[in-house]
Specification:
The complex is a heterodimer.
Chain A: H1 2-19, H2 22-50, E1 52-53, E2 56-57, H3 58-78, H4 80-92, H5 94-99, H6 105-111, H7 119-135, H8 142-171, H9 178-190, H10 200-209, H11 212-223, H12 235-238, H13 242-258
Antiparallel strand pairs in A: 1-2
Helix pairs in contact in A: 2-3, 2-7, 3-4, 3-7, 3-8, 3-11, 4-6, 4-8, 8-9, 8-11, 8-13
Chain B: E1 4-16, E2 28-41, E3 46-50, H1 57-64, E4 72-77, H2 86-90, E5 93-97, H3 109-119, H4 124-137, H5 153-165, E6 171-175, H6 183-200, E7 203-207, H7 211-217, E8 220-225, E9 228-233, H8 235-242, E10 246-252, E11 266-270, E12 273-278, H9 285-295, E13 298-305, H10 308-318
Parallel strand pairs in B: 3-7, 3-8, 5-6, 6-7
Antiparallel strand pairs in B: 1-2, 1-4, 8-9, 10-12, 10-13, 11-12
The chains are: A mainly alpha, B alpha/beta.
Chain lengths: 266, 321
C-alpha cells in the first residue's frame, strides 16, 4: 500500500516539476500531437490508396494503430524513468543517490520519471481505436472490453520489459543501444500494422523475440473477428500474458545487472 | 568490535582507452583504486578522510555506503555488510555528496522532505519532530517553500544535510561537503556537524580538500594516497612532522641594519622590511630572535606557521603522491 502511495506521490511531484515551465509544456504537448497525428496520417494515406492490405480493411488498420499508440505512450507516461531517463541517470551519477535509499532500484527509477506530454499521443490513439472499431463494425461485449484492457496492460509490460534491455546495457556503460532501439522504437513503427503482412523473418522477430504480435495483435484481431494467423479464440486471452513474462524476466536480469554497477567518478 | 571495521578492502576499475590505429580492440587498463585499505572507527567518532584527487576517497565512501561492491576484503558497519542487503543497510546511514543533489530540483524543499518521509517509512510524529529540530539547527524554516533550484549553494547544502538526516542515521558520510561554499556557510556547516555529532552521537566520516574542515571538526584524520592508507591519527601530530618552514616578517626603525644570517635561512629585504623563512628544527627560534634583535630596533614583527595547505602539499610530495 505504502509503495503505491509513494509511486502516486512521486508522480505528483514530477508533474509539479513539469508545471514549473507551463508554456514550454503546452508547446511540447502540441508538438507531440502534430507528430503522432503525422504517424496516423501515414496510415490514413495507406488506407486511402489500397483500401485493403491482405485481409485487413481500413478500419482494422486504424484499430491496430490505436492499440500501439495507446500502449506505447501509456508506458512512456507511467515509466519514463525506464523508457527515457535511465541511461542519463547512470552517466550523471544520479543512480548513486537512488542506491542510498531503502527501496528497490527498479521501483525508484520508475518513480523518477514521467512524460505527461504524451497524453496528446494517447488521445490520437484512442481516437484511432474508436474510428477503427466503428468502421470495422465491432460489436462490443464485456469479453471484448476485457480482452482490450488485458492487451493494453500486457503490451505496456512488454514495452517496459524491452526498454529494460536498454537499461541493462547502459548499466555496463555500453553506449551502443541502437540495436535495442530497433526492437523498441522499431517495434512500435512496424507493429502499428498487423505482423502477418510482413515477410517471415520480421514475423518471427515480432512474434517470438519482441512479441508485440502476441500481446496486442492476437487479441486485437480477435476483437475485429479475423484471428491473426488463424489462431483459436482462447489465444486472445492467453498469449498477451507473454508481456508479463518478458517484464518479469527483465526485472530479474536488471537486478542482477545492478550488482555490476560501477558508478561514475566524482 | 568497532562500529566500522574495514579489512583489506580492494577495488579496481577497468578503463578503456581510445582505440589505437591499426588495432582491432581498444586497450584496457586496470586502475587499482583501493589496494587493501584497513581501518576501524568507533561509534560517535568524527573522522576526516583526506588525500589528493584520485586517491580512492570517494571509492571508499561508495563501498561503505553500499553503492559499489568491492573486489576483495571485508567491511562491516554496525555488524552489517554494506553491499549485501543494501536496502536494510541504507536505512541506518546518511550520505551527502557535495557535488550531487539528492533532493528534487524543481519543487519546494518541504515537498522533497515529505517524499523522503514516505521513502524511509517514517511515522508522522517522528518525522515532524525531527524536521522541526533540523530546520531550526540549519535555519531552513524560511526556505521550506522555495524550490531547490532557487536556493544559493550554501542554502542548498543545508537542505541536503537536512534531507540526509531526517531518518536519524547512525552514520553520516560527507563527500566534500564544503566545496564551493563561502566562509559563513562553511562555519555554519561545521557548527551544525559538531552539534549533530554531540547531540545524537552520530558517527561522521568526512572527505574533504579543505584542511580547515578537518582542523575544526575531526579529532582523527586518515590520509589516503594511491589507494593506500598512509597515515591514521591526530591532525596536530601529522602536521608537526611536516611543519618544517616558518615565515617571519620584521620591520626595523632604520633602513638596512647589519644582519648576518646563518645558512639555510632565506631572507628578502625591502627597504627596512625583512621577510625570511627558516626551519625551526635546524635553527632554534630563540637563536633567530636573538640575531634579529641584535641587528637593530624592531618596530614590528610577525611570526607565522606555514599555511596548512602548504603543509599538506609538502606531505603529499614526500609521500610521492
Amino acid at each position: 500500500m505504502n509503495t503505491i502511495k509513494l509511486y502516486v506521490r512521486s508522480m505528483g511531484m514530477l508533474m509539479k516539476s513539469h508545471m514549473q515551465y507551463t508554456s514550454s509544456f503546452i508547446l511540447q504537448m502540441l508538438t507531440q500531437l502534430v507528430m503522432e497525428g503525422g504517424e496516423m496520417l501515414a496510415v490514413i494515406l495507406v488506407v486511402d490508396r489500397f483500401e485493403k492490405v491482405n485481409q485487413w480493411t481500413g478500419g482494422d488498420l486504424y484499430f491496430f494503430f490505436g492499440m500501439m499508440s495507446v500502449s506505447f505512450y501509456t508506458t512512456e507516461i507511467f515509466a519514463r524513468g525506464i523508457t527515457g531517463d535511465f541511461p542519463s541517470m547512470v552517466r550523471t551519477g544520479r543512480l548513486d543517490t537512488l542506491m542510498l535509499r531503502p527501496r528497490t532500484i527498479f521501483f525508484q527509477v520508475l518513480c523518477s520519471g514521467t512524460d505527461p506530454r504524451r497524453i496528446t499521443c494517447i488521445a490520437v490513439g484512442v481516437a484511432s481505436l474508436i474510428i477503427g472499431s466503428r468502421m470495422s463494425g465491432v460489436e462490443w461485449s464485456v469479453l471484448k472490453a476485457l480482452a482490450l484492457t488485458e492487451a493494453v496492460l500486457m503490451s505496456c509490460m512488454l514495452i517496459l520489459g524491452l526498454f529494460l534491455i536498454e537499461a541493462i546495457f547502459s548499466i555496463h556503460s555500453v553506449k551502443s543501444v541502437e540495436l535495442v532501439n530497433a526492437i523498441t522504437y522499431g517495434g512500435r513503427s512496424a507493429c502499428q500494422y498487423p505482423t502477418d503482412i510482413y515477410p517471415r523473418p520480421l514475423k518471427i522477430l515480432f512474434t517470438v523475440v519482441a512479441p508485440f504480435a502476441l500481446t496486442m495483435q492476437v487479441p486485437a484481431a480477435w476483437i475485429l473477428g479475423k484471428p491473426l494467423y488463424g489462431w483459436p479464440a482462447w489465444t486472445a486471452f492467453v498469449t498477451p500474458l507473454s508481456g508479463a513474462a518478458v517484464l518479469a524476466l527483465m526485472i530479474v536480469l536488471f537486478n542482477r545487472g545492478m550488482k555490476y554497477y560501477r558508478s561514475t567518478g566524482s | 568490535m568497532s562500529y566500522i571495521e574495514v579489512n583489506g578492502l580492494k577495488k579496481s576499475f577497468t578503463v578503456k582507452k581510445k582505440r589505437e590505429k591499426g588495432k582491432l580492440f581498444r586497450e584496457k587498463q586496470i586502475v587499482e583504486a583501493l589496494k587493501g585499505i584497513s581501518f576501524s572507527v568507533d561509534r560517535g567518532e568524527l573522522v576526516g578522510y583526506i588525500g589528493p584527487n584520485g586517491a580512492g576517497k570517494s571509492t571508499t565512501v561508495k563501498i561503505l555506503s553500499g553503492i559499489l561492491t568491492p573486489d576483495g576484503g571485508e567491511a562491516t558497519v554496525g555488524g552489517r555488510v554494506p553491499w549485501q542487503e543494501r536496502r536494510e543497510y541504507v536505512r541506518h546511514i546518511g550520505v551527502v555528496f557535495g557535488q550531487r543533489s539528492q533532493l528534487w530540483w524543481d519543487v519546494p524543499i518541504i515537498d522533497s522532505f515529505s517524499l523522503l518521509k514516505d521513502i524511509y517509512r517514517l511515522s508522522e510524529a517522528d518525522y515532524s519532530s525531527r524536521l522541526k529540530e533540523l530546520s531550526e539547527a540549519l535555519q531552513l524554516e524560511e526556505l521550506m517553500r522555495t524550490p531547490l533550484r532557487l536556493l544559493s549553494l550554501g542554502q542548498r547544502m543545508r537542505a541536503e544535510l537536512c534531507g540526509s538526516l531526517l531518518h536519524r542515521p547512525e552514520l553520516l558520510f560527507l563527500d566534500e561537503p564544503t566545496i564551493g561554499l563561502d566562509a559563513v556557510s562553511k562555519l555554519a556547516l561545521r557548527d551544525f556537524l559538531k552539534w549533530e555529532n554531540s547531540e545524537h552521537g552520530t558517527t561522521v566520516m568526512l572527505t574533504t580538500h579543505d584542511m580547515e574542515d578537518i582542523a575544526a571538526l575531526c579529532s582523527r584524520v586518515m590520509v589516503l594516497g594511491h589507494g593506500r592508507k598512509l597515515y591514521d591519527g591526530k591532525l596536530p601530530e601529522l602536521l608537526e612532522k611536516y611543519d618544517t618552514v616558518r615565515t617571519v616578517n620584521v620591520k626595523y626603525d632604520a633602513a638596512h641594519p647589519e644582519l648576518v644570517l646563518p645558512e639555510g635561512v632565506s631572507a628578502e629585504w625591502n627597504d627596512s622590511e625583512l621577510s625570511l623563512s627558516y626551519s625551526p628544527s635546524k635553527l632554534p627560534t630563540a637563536q633567530l630572535l636573538a640575531l634579529l634583535q641584535d641587528a637593530g630596533r624592531i618596530s614590528e614583527m610577525t611570526l607565522q606557521p606555514e599555511n596548512i595547505d602548504h603543509l599538506i602539499a609538502a606531505m603529499y610530495k614526500e609521500m610521492d603522491l
